[in-house]
Inverse folding.
């Protein structure tokens, strides 16, 4: 017996088992059950138990194969293959695709995911940032072929100009959409954008499902750049919109929220400029008044003083005049008095001066002698004579 | 090297500066020379902003998908 037995190495055995299991199972088969113990490790590997009443099987898959929110208690259909994981010898259902067992299940799971993320604080309104008022450079993440893109660009051009837009053309529906969008969000992080716009137009519940993807929601939450998200129509609110800093209802609304209307801004600019011009006029007027006030004091002082000075000058001048007049009068009087003392004037009145031969004045007859020579001075000339009688 | 005149006007900063100048004048007081300088600056910013706002085109560039992820 023993000699006929085949001897397998452990790894060969597992390879053999996996081959047999693989052949025995059709990929179109699905296993339906309830999720339990759902967890994501290192952001890459999803595992949970799929249960019946008494039975369970481990389900294992990479996170990028999961496109619906999964929560414990949810009923799902798992497509994949049975497999023993060689490293641990653990049997699991290696999933390729997981679908909700019904739309009701999906809604329930989505609600549960929403509550979980909300509890974690991802939708906290206090952490929401405002978009810059005048963005210069933005990232557009969406399908370049879509009507959403056309609407966004058209409205943007109508309202504003000079914005640099980098378009990240991504899939916006289907299995790869969430991953595609999340990758684009991560790529934008190294570029100094003022805002990231993520948008797509309306679609079915399933079409919009990519924007409820947990990994995408977390990528948007982790963005250092403010995010503006509009998915579908106004009535559809995806988790990507809830986590965004600003939510817009449609791609058109996105453009409106992103940039101001240039007419409004020009008007605002005019109002501000006018206000500054008026303020400047007032500013100058205040200074003119202040200057006039400052100047009036010295000029008043000057006026007062100039009046004083002219009064003083007038007074001095008249005093001088009076002094001069009296001086002149005194001079004239003195002249008259002096004139009266002039000996020539006396001679004119008929007197004469008698001198001896030496020129000495003789004022008495006692000084005269007989035959003495004398000289006479009259008003108009001199004469000589001899004393003949005393 | 782009010439200085080609440098893009920062609309946000421009508006902020204009608002600050308006507030400075509203507060009153201040030096005459400073006031004149601020007024000239306000007129220059206003002119730049008006020119910038009349810019019609938005520039669109497609970012090629990276395969590094």
């Amino acid at each position: 017996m023993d000699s006929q037995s085949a001897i397998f190495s452990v790894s060969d055995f597992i390879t053999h088992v996996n081959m047999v299991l693989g052949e025995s199972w059709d990929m179109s088969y699905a296993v339906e059950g309830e999720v339990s113990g759902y967890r994501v490790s290192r952001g890459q590997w999803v595992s949970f138990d799929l249960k019946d009443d008494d039975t369970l099987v481990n389900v294992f898959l990479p996170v990028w194969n999961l496109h619906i929110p999964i929560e414990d208690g949810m009923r799902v259909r798992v497509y994949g293959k049975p497999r023993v994981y060689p490293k641990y010898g653990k049997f699991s259902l290696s999933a390729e695709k997981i679908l909700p067992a019904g739309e009701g299940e999906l809604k329930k799971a989505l609600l549960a995911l929403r509550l979980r993320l909300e509890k974690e604080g991802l939708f906290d309104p206090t952490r929401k940032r405002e978009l810059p008022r005048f963005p210069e450079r933005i990232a557009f993440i969406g399908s370049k072929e879509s009507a959403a893109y056309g609407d966004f660009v058209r409205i943007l051009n109508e309202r504003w100009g000079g914005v640099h837009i980098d378009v990240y053309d991504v899939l916006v529906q289907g299995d790869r959409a969430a991953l595609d969008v999340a990758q684009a969000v991560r790529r934008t992080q190294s570029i100094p954008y003022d805002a990231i716009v993520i948008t797509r137009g309306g679609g079915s519940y399933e079409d919009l499902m990519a924007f409820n993807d947990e990994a995408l929601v977390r990528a948007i939450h982790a963005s250092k750049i403010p995010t503006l998200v509009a998915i579908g129509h106004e009535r559809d609110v995806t988790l990507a919109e809830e986590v965004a800093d600003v939510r817009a209802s449609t791609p058109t609304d996105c453009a409106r929220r992103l940039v101001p209307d240039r007419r409004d801004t020009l008007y605002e600019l005019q109002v501000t400029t006018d206000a500054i011009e008026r303020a400047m006029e007032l500013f100058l007027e205040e200074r003119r008044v202040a200057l006039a006030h400052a100047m009036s004091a010295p000029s008043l002082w000057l006026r007062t003083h100039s009046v004083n000075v002219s009064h003083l000058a007038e007074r001095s001048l008249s005093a001088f005049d009076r002094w001069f007049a009296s001086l002149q009068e005194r001079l004239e009087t003195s002249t008259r008095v002096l004139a009266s003392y002039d000996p020539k004037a006396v001679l004119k009145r008929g007197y004469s001066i008698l001198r001896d031969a030496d020129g000495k004045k003789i004022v008495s007859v006692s000084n005269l002698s007989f035959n003495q020579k004398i000289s006479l001075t009259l008003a108009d000339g001199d004469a000589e004579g001899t004393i003949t009688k005393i | 090297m782009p010439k200085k005149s080609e440098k893009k006007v920062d609309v946000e900063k421009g508006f902020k500066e204009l608002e600050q100048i308006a507030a400075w004048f509203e507060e009153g007081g201040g030096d005459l020379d400073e006031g004149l300088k601020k007024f000239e600056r306000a007129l220059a910013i206003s002119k730049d902003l008006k020119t910038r706002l009349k810019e019609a085109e938005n520039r669109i560039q497609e970012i090629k998908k990276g395969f590094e992820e």
